[in-house]
Amino acid sequence: MARRGIIAYPDIRLRAAARPITANDTQLSALAGDLRDTLCVTGGIALSAPQIGVPLQVLVLDLSARGDALEYYVNPRILARAAWGFVEESCLSLPGVTASVLRATRVRLTAQDLTGARFERDVDGLRAVCLQHEIDHLAGRLFVDRLDPLRRLYWHATAGRRARAAA
Ligand code: ZN
User: Fold this and answer.
1) How far is the CA of 116 from the centre of ligand 1 (A)?
2) DSSP calls for 126-156
3) pLDDT tens for each residue of 104-127
């Protein structure tokens, strides 16, 4: 297990769709360890494999500040969304950027755990928002893609300046 570098916008690897994990992917537990080790030094609460340069459908969630254990989701898929609202988001791959994004605050999803067992789960609040954000990463999508058109235009017009400032 090792701490990995986090890939930052505008790296094109953040735009690639991640491949589902299959039974042949023997590196899954090492990848899960790397995600955990990398996330725990960032102060963030969630991280997806594409953000450490691995184009596979795995993500980790750390809501331990709320007394929960680390959660891994493999090949996650959202089945239903409800209770939409604007939520303030940020991203480890977009340092220094926060924006208000329209998200479902109640979600039903299916995923596999690290042993390959499939489960279905209803989640809400912060957990639901984080999972949508990370599942977007697995599809090559960033939260700024979900801004309304005018704000997205402004974001793209100023992104180069922000990237240089953060470097
Ligand atoms: Zn992110």
Assistant:
1) 24
2) HHHHHHHHHHHHHTT--GGGGS-HHHHHHHH
3) 999 999 999 999 999 999 999 999
